[in-house]
Amino acid sequence: MKAVILAGGTGSRLMPLTSYINKHMLPIGRHPMIHHGIQTLRKAGIKEILITTNRQSAGMFIQYFGSGEEMAVSLAYRIQEGAGGIADALQLARPFIADGEKFLVLLGDNLFEEDLTPYIHEFQQQQDGAMVLLKEVDDPHRYGIPIFHPNGAIKHIVEKPEKPQSNLSVTGLYMYSSDVFQRIENISPSSRGELEITDLNNLYAAAGLLTYRTLSGWWMDAGTFESLKEASARYWDIEY
Q1: What is the pLDDT of residues 126-143, one digit of tens each?
Q2: Comparing C-alpha atoms, which of 195, 177, 175 is closest to residue 8?
Q3: What are phi and psi of 89, to 5 degrees?
Q4: What is 2-235's CATH number, 3.40.190.10, 3.90.550.10, 3.30.930.10, 3.40.50.720?
C-alpha cells in the first residue's frame, strides 16, 4: 500500500512556535515529529509516501527528507493552497493513487506505539469501504467520538461532543480505497469553510462501509504543548 501524510495546517494550538515553523517539523525526541510517522509507515511495509503541506513549509520538508532515500522510502510532495481542510488536502493525492488501489492516510501530528501491519493486512482483505482505528482516551470531548449501532458497527461520528457517549476516540489514521475521491465530492464545507474528514467518514458509516479496530498501545495527537512534551519523553531514547 501507499500512504499519504497530511502535514499542512496552521498549528494554532502550538503558537508561537508555529508562527515560524511547520508543527510537523517540531522536535520530538531526537527527530522532527513527522519523522516518527514515516518510520511507523516504513515499519509496516509502506515505502511510497506522499506528503501534502502548505507552500511556506514545502522547502523545509524537502531539505530534511529529500527523496526519502536515507529513510528507505520514496517521498513525493504536493502543495495545498489555502486552508481547505483535511479532506481537501486529501484530494491532492488523487494523481498518486491508482483506480481501485487501497491506501492509508496519516495526520502528521499523530503518533502510534503499535506496529500497524496487522491492521493494514486486515484492511487489504476488506472488500470495500474504509477503516478507522480507535483508542480509549481520558478526555473524549476533545476528539471525534463514534456512536455505535446495537450490532457494534459505527453509526456515525460526532466531533468534539459536549456529552460523549463513550471514551473511544477516532485516531488520525484512516484507510480508504480510491473511491474516496468521488465521496469527497459529495461533502460540503463546514461552518469554518473546510472539508472535514469526519464528514467524509460519516458518508462511509451511513452506507455501512466504515469498519474499525481498537488499538491496545498508546496513541498521541501531538498538537498541544502538553502532548508535545509527553511525546518527546516517550521518544527521547529512540534512535533509528
Answers
A1: 988 999 999 999 989 989
A2: 195
A3: -65, -35
A4: 3.90.550.10
